[in-house]
Design goal:
Number of helices of chain A: 10
Number of strands of chain A: 0
Order of helices and strands of chain A: HHHHHHHHHH
Mean pLDDT of chain A: 92
Radius of gyration of chain A: 20 Å
Structural class of chain A: mainly alpha
Largest sheet of chain A: none
Helix content of chain A: over 70%
Strand content of chain A: under 5%
Oligomer: homodimer
Low-confidence stretches of chain A: 183-194
Shape of chain A: elongated
Chain lengths: 194, 194
DNA sequence: ACCTGAACACCGTTCAAGT
DNA sequence: ACCTGAACACCGTTCAAGT
């Protein structure tokens, strides 16, 4: 990319971020182009779809998020790590309106610009889940897909203003479905032997 | 309403149902009007918004759904009733693409045509939840709003094709967060006495 | 009463033409 | 290489004019 184009790109992206923050995830591409003082066709050449634009807007946050999964895995007990991971996810959802809904639809579509990011979040979730399951502190009958789905459902929900205040509580309710309460079998009794 | 207008209304509604089933919840109102052989302005006079159209399309199903809550309350044990209610809700979500998402946004907006329907589902949910809580088989720290929210999150999720096949399993995972497992305290031991 | 065509202000897509 | 205006086919809203 030429340096003047790069500068243009950065400017457009900054304006887009402000426009999305201000007007919500459905601001028209035309509006963004207008606010950036650039032709609509130019905006669409940089970001052919809304998803491509969001991918660029979310990249840094998503990188930080998935990196956080590594840190949690290295520094925390399996159950604590998984719980904190869910908490980080909810914080991400609350901080980026519309992002979760977009990711939920993108995760099954390899052509989406957000596909790779979804796969990374999915993989991180599955890894933390498997670790907790191996340790016996998470339900064994939940798959990585299930967890990713539940995370999307929760993230989408708390994205709705009426439910945002209950985000933390709803997160703990969901966590209680995934994590096995220590009270139930802390003595490591084999559950169902015939 | 004049009888010819009534006939027109019914015809438009039938065509709209087919169009939504065929083309998804975002079919253009123009398309529906075209398929019904009626002016766009006429369609919009009957249904000023997409929500008004959906309210008419969903009314029978929603009535059946909330009525089902009464039946469950009368015929089943509190925990079974609540679990079955969640199951009915998921079936509703799977049967009416886009409905849950619309209801989730409508439930906090008294001006929405779907507001009353949302309130009815919310009330039914809260009633079944309270009954289960009183009986000690549901977590006490969940509110009716929480339950309605979780139901919306789950309903929205299973509306996405990749997650639909796991609907029943996801439902049971969520239920395990709400219902108290009999194994944990079937002997009615007071949980935390200092 | 009930319906409608048409004008309106929008949207994202596409491409030939400019620098 | 990079940008752009303009044409295009769409959308929902609105209203004066028809039966």
């Amino acid at each position: 990319m030429r340096s003047d184009a790069k500068k243009n790109y950065d400017h457009v992206l900054a304006v887009a971020r402000a426009a999305v923050t201000e007007g919500g995830p459905d601001v028209s591409m035309r509006d963004i182009a207008r606010q950036a003082g650039v032709g609509l066709a130019t905006l669409l050449r940089h970001f052919p779809t809304r998803e491509a634009l969001f991918e660029a807007l979310l990249r840094a946050s998503l990188d930080r998020l998935t990196q956080r999964a590594d840190e949690l895995e290295a520094s925390r007990k399996p159950d604590e790590a998984l719980l904190s991971w869910l908490s980080e996810w909810v914080a991400f959802a609350l901080g980026h309106r519309g992002a979760v809904a977009m990711m939920a639809t993108a995760h099954a579509n390899p052509d989406s610009a957000l596909y790779a990011a979804c796969a990374a979040v999915h993989a991180a979730s599955a890894r933390l889940l498997l670790r907790a399951q191996t340790d016996g502190v998470a339900r064994a009958d939940i798959t990585g897909d299930d967890l990713f789905g539940l995370m999307c459902g929760l993230g989408w929900l708390v994205d709705l203003p009426p439910f945002a205040p209950r985000a933390d509580h709803l997160l703990h309710i969901l966590a209680s479905a995934i994590l096995i309460e220590p009270a139930a079998g802390s003595g490591r009794i084999e559950a169902t032997r015939p």
